């Protein structure tokens, strides 16, 4: 595992707290739901297809990477790891 869901930054500057912030402020998930998410995927957390598209756009704008279409089946740790690994491989 590359990072935890705590406030630590992953080595390449991907903040788990920023990913959570995007999901709460841009997608509308409640902080309590994210805190208790565990291994739940975005779709299991109630993020619909429009929310997924918006999340993909914000991550693309902020980090310069495209998230895969399968992002709705990924949990928060997987998303953070994907962003971190993609940013690393683009360097």
Automatic annotation (TrEMBL):
Domain Carrier: 18-70
Gene3D superfamilies linked: ACP-like
Regions crossing the membrane: none
Name the record gives this protein: Acyl carrier protein
Native organism: Nocardiopsis mwathae
Record lineage: Bacteria, Bacillati, Actinomycetota, Actinomycetes, Streptosporangiales
């Amino acid at each position: 595992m590359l990072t935890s869901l705590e406030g630590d930054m992953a080595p390449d500057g991907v903040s788990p707290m920023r990913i959570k912030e995007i999901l709460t402020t841009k997608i509308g998930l409640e902080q309590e739901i994210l805190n208790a998410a565990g291994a739940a995927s975005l779709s299991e957390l109630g993020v619909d297809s429009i929310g997924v598209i918006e999340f993909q756009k914000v991550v693309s704008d902020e980090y310069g990477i495209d998230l895969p279409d399968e992002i709705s089946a990924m949990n928060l740790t997987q998303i953070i790891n994907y962003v971190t690994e993609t940013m690393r491989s683009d360097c």
